[in-house]
């Protein structure tokens, strides 16, 4: 997303008809260098990460109709349409990265309230756009 500092990680979102069938491809994903992480904190998602501590790719797989799909897309589209918010988010991320350089959980916790607020705004905004 423009104006947002981030690690150079490519996030890929995939929509499938049956999320349970994805587990049958875990070996193939491992052969491609991905770590199989299951739901990884989000119910009915399958998550794969590539690159270990130097992550390069994340694959998020959701079943069609999962509300996470529209939520992620609304957040992305809202931030693109509102560069002042993306700049604010970027500054927050930079400050948290400085404050918690080795504690990803504190970093994520620090973003949580802001992200929840933007998620609400993005959902309302996306209804009219």
Automatic annotation (TrEMBL):
Top-level taxon in the UniProt lineage: Bacteria
Entry-linked InterPro entries: GrpB/CoaE, NT_sf
Gene3D superfamilies linked: Beta Polymerase, domain 2 (3.30.460.10)
Protein name: Glutamate-rich protein grpB
Naturally occurring in which organism (per UniProt): Halalkalibacter okhensis
């Amino acid at each position: 997303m423009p104006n947002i500092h981030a690690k150079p990680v490519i996030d890929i979102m995939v929509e499938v008809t049956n999320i349970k069938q994805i587990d049958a491809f875990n070996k193939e994903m491992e052969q491609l260098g991905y770590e199989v992480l299951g739901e990884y904190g989000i119910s009915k998602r399958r998550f794969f990460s590539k690159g270990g501590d130097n992550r390069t790719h994340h694959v998020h797989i959701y079943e069609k109709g999962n509300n996470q799909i529209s939520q992620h897309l609304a957040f992305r589209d809202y931030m693109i349409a509102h560069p002042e918010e993306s700049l604010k988010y970027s500054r927050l991320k930079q400050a948290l990265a400085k404050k918690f350089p080795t504690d990803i959980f504190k970093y994520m916790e620090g973003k949580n309230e802001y992200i929840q607020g933007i998620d609400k705004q993005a959902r309302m905004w996306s209804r009219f756009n």
